[in-house]
Amino acid sequence: MKKVGLYFGTFNPIHMGHLVIANHMVEFSQLDEVWFVVTPQSPFKAKKSLLDNNHRYQMVLEATEDYPKLRPSTIEFGLDQPNYTIDTLAHLSEKYPGGHQFGLIMGEDNLKSFHKWKNYEVILAHYELYVYPRISEGSWPESLQDHPHIHMVDAPIMEISSTFIRKSHKAGKNIRPLLPEAVWRYMDEMNFYR
What is the chain's mean pLDDT, rounded? Predict the structure, then answer.
């Protein structure tokens, strides 16, 4: 049984923080692989700053090429929008019966609002959560503390954001060290976020 952690995000663009966390999860938890699930652009709230799905997927592909335990996934591209995590999990469980056990990777900040997710009790009953620390206010609900399916993973705290990278790049700052080299090259060649 292969344990796969699903790391959801727009990855606009994917950066070193994402890679450090994903790699830490796969090396220091029970996970065998981490799949970067690229969230498609919602037709209901088109954002100018969000690159096309395929460009963001391509950057994740380039970023993970040298890491056999990290993989990009387009699983959500074919699902109806708006899409909820529970639907993606159901779809993956149907697509990979038997051989895969899926879990969710999320930041501690997301865990605090997890009780507001659609069917969060169902997710928690059937899937494991792998949570990495974030600097954020408040604490998570008592009902989730000591839950057998929630694993706190002592990953490095990464305070790099894609928003910061886009804004800084647009302002002409050198953000190259924050990105995997292949992602930087792709971004530069395509003239993204200028």
Answer: 93
